[in-house]
Each structure stands twice: as C-alpha cells, then as structure tokens.
Design brief:
By secondary structure, the chain is mainly alpha-helical. The chain has two domains: 99 residues, Orthogonal Bundle (Arc Repressor Mutant, subunit A); 75 residues. It is 57% helix and 7% strand. It is built from eight helices and five strands, in the order αβααβαβααααββ. The strands form two sheets. Strands 1-3-2 form a three-stranded antiparallel beta sheet. β4 and β5 form a beta hairpin. The two termini are 32 Å apart. InterPro entries: Metal_resp_DNA-bind_regulator (IPR052509), Tscrpt_reg_PadR_N (IPR005149), WH-like_DNA-bd_sf (IPR036388), WH_DNA-bd_sf (IPR036390). This is PadR family transcriptional regulator. It holds the Pfam family PadR. Keywords: Coiled coil.
C-alpha cells in the first residue's frame, strides 16, 4: 500500500467513526475538512472503500432514510450505499491513531493526523507535534545551508522564492511551538450545559486549539506529556 493511499484510508476511517456516510458525503468532507485530499477523485475513493469493506473495517448499507430507499427506484437509480464503520474498523483506526512513526511527521500525513487530534490521546498528540517540529527544524537547516551555498548564483526572484519558502516553514514551527505549549499547559474546555470553563486533565480529551495571539498558561503538574 502506498503512503498516499494509506493516508486516504486513515482519513476515511476517521470520518466514518464520526458517523456513517455515503460516498459523495465522504468526498465532500475530504475536500472541505481535509484540504490535503482536494486532488482525490471518485476513481481513487471508491477502490479505497472497497478495500476497507473487504478487510472487514466497513460495511455497506442502504441509504440513510426511508425516503432515500424509495426515491432511488422511482428515479430509476440504484439506492445510495452508506458506509458504516465496524467494530474491527474502529479498533484498527484507534491502532492507527496511536502510531507516531516518522510518516506521521510528513506534510500530507501530518495534516491528516492533525485533523483527528480531537480523537487522539494527549501523549500521542505531543509526540506527533514534537516529531513534526523536529522534522521542520531539520528542513530549515538544510534550506539555510543550501541558500548560503547558492545565494550568489541566484537571481533576485529565485532568491525571494527561497526566502518565502523558509519563512513559511518558520511560521509553522512557531505555530507548532504554540500548540506544544498549549498541550503542556492543559486545555480549557467548555463544561457541559452551562458553558463554564474547566481544566482538561484527562488523556486524550479534545480541547480548544490555540489561536494567533493566545498566550499559553503555566504548566500544571502532571499535565506535561513525556
């Protein structure tokens, strides 16, 4: 299985863990919620779904509602197939969520992993964020060294493009630093029913992502992931 198809399978399982969907809904969510998948087509998605069904991680069911089931025959069309995550599929997805190998730090895979951080335990989130930061810091060093060697041979536009690339990586490193500090400090969550703020001290509880300009709070004993 290629790395790209593996990312797609991961994202499909994650979306279906939230709720069953038919293929069109899945493709729409992949395009709108996970920008990394904008280039994927139905020709890529449906073989992926068939593979997941064959592995026992998904099952195919008739359309969501009675109206769906009745409308298709009247229109001369097949009923929409809805894909639902099985217990085995949920277990497999949770296993994938727990993995923090080097692939999780790469551009496309990191974007997919980050999209499901709300379903990921804090210690895993920390490892992925720190791994991604290290990967980008290595990239910055290589870009800086390359620019130093070739600066005199580059025209102004190429040089500006190189600088723009470095600035983009530097911005992401700063963003990752904010996220890591937020994870270490704990998350502020909305309490059920009253909108009160409570401190997140649980492993894997989803929280509020830091926004530009936010100042992370002080470390709380026991909240720092190792």
């Amino acid at each position: 299985m290629s790395r790209r198809s593996g990312i797609l399978e991961f994202a499909v399982l994650g979306l279906l863990r939230e709720s069953p969907m038919h293929g069109y809904e899945l493709r729409k969510r992949l395009n709108t919620s996970l920008g990394v998948f904008r280039a994927f087509s139905y020709g890529t998605l449906y073989p992926c779904l068939k593979t997941l069904v064959a592995n026992g991680w998904l099952i195919e069911e008739p359309g969501h509602t009675t109206e769906d089931a009745l409308a298709a025959p009247l229109a001369g069309r097949r009923a929409k197939i809805v894909y639902r995550l099985t217990a085995e599929g949920k277990e497999h997805f949770e296993e994938l969520l727990s993995q923090t190998g080097p692939d999780a730090y790469e551009d496309e895979h990191f974007a997919a992993r980050f999209a499901f951080f709300g379903q990921t335990s804090r210690d895993v989130r920390m490892r992925v964020l720190e791994g991604r930061r290290s990967r980008l810091e290595e990239r910055l060093e290589k870009m800086s060294a390359s620019l130093a060697r070739t600066r005199e041979r580059l025209d102004d536009y190429t040089l500006e493009l190189q600088r723009h690339g470095m600035e983009s990586v530097e911005r992401e490193v700063r963003w990752l630093n904010e996220l890591i500090e937020s994870e270490r400090a704990g998350r502020d969550l909305k309490g059920p029913g009253h909108g009160e703020t409570v401190r997140d001290t649980t492993e894997g509880a989803p929280g509020v992502l830091p926004r530009p300009g936010d100042t992370p709070g002080p470390d709380t004993p026991g909240d720092t992931a190792t």
